[in-house]
Amino acid sequence: MDGLQITDLRVGYKRNQVVHGIELHVGSGERVALLGANGAGKSTVLKTISGLLTPSTGSVRFDGEDLAGKTPASIVDRGVVQVPEGRRVFPGLDVEENLRAANYGRGASSLGEGLEAVYSAFPILKERRRQPAGLLSGGQQQMLSLGRAIVARPKLLLIDEMSLGLAPVLVKEFYETLDSLFSKDVTLLLVEQNASLALAYCERFYVIRNGEIALEGPSEQYRDDQTALQAAYLGV
């Protein structure tokens, strides 16, 4: 199956296993949310897809290729790009240097197109392109984090807790602009605690609880009644 396919994934930190044999898939061009409480294992799944963690068992395949054993850099080269939790910009580099870093290994024309797209979407970043990224507000750093993903031209986009620490009006604005920021054929796995936002944007969802998939289904069935979601979150 094209897109992302995770099978029997088990992964942890040293002797502490966090993810216990989960299975999920995101079809090519599909938008899927991975929901769950803090500590449920959501970010661990994304780190494993990105090559930052090595699974003890199971497989992670994207467009038919096994990503296991690949370095994070080679996984990015295959079009897998993550917007990390907490933005994590390079604070000592200016805005444009952060964006240029996302174009590493690509040509000047690709960078020019990427910068044009970012500055069109977020004019404030163009105004502050020579300002150190560490001096930007939280919302502006999130714009920059999304901007780096735009420059990197993802095939598979992983977004980790985009709403964390941001004002609700700004989060709503980010979600409303995602479709215009990235091509329609980009495959998206979105990690989010705010279930209402995620269900409004994504076609399907998974709820992970204590490292296991507790519930999955089409978003439209749960947007108006989230009782089952709450039960899956809490295990009741």
Q: CATH H level of the largest domain: which superfamily?
A: P-loop containing nucleotide triphosphate hydrolases
> What distance lies between the first and last C-alpha atoms, to the nearest angstrom?
34 Å
Instruction: Give the beta-strand count.
Output: 10
| CATH class group of the largest domain | Alpha Beta
**Which H/E pattern describes the elements?**
EEEHEEHEHHHHEHEHEEH
Please, how many domains?
2
The low-confidence parts are: none
**What count of helical segments does DSSP give?**
9
Q: What is the averaged pLDDT score? A: 88
Shape: globular
According to CATH, the fold-level topology of the largest domain is Rossmann fold
Percent of residues in helices comes to: 25-40%
Describe the structure.
- The protein is α/β, with parallel strands linked by helices and 236 residues long.
- It has helices at 42-49, 72-77, 95-101, 108-121, 123-127, 138-152, 168-181, 195-201, 227-234; strands at residues 4-13, 16-26, 31-35, 57-62, 65-66, 80-83, 156-160, 187-192, 204-209, 212-218.
- The chain has 2 domains: 4-79 and 154-234, 3-Layer(aba) Sandwich (Rossmann fold); 90-152, no CATH class.
- Helices cover 36% and strands 26% of the residues.
- A 6-stranded mixed sheet has the order 6-7-8-3-9-10, with helices on both faces. Strands 2-1-4-5 form a 4-stranded antiparallel sheet, with helices on one face.
- Strand 1 (4-13) and strand 2 (16-26) form a beta hairpin.
- Helix 3 runs parallel beside helix 6 (138-152) and helix 4 (108-121) runs antiparallel to helix 6 (138-152).
- It is globular.
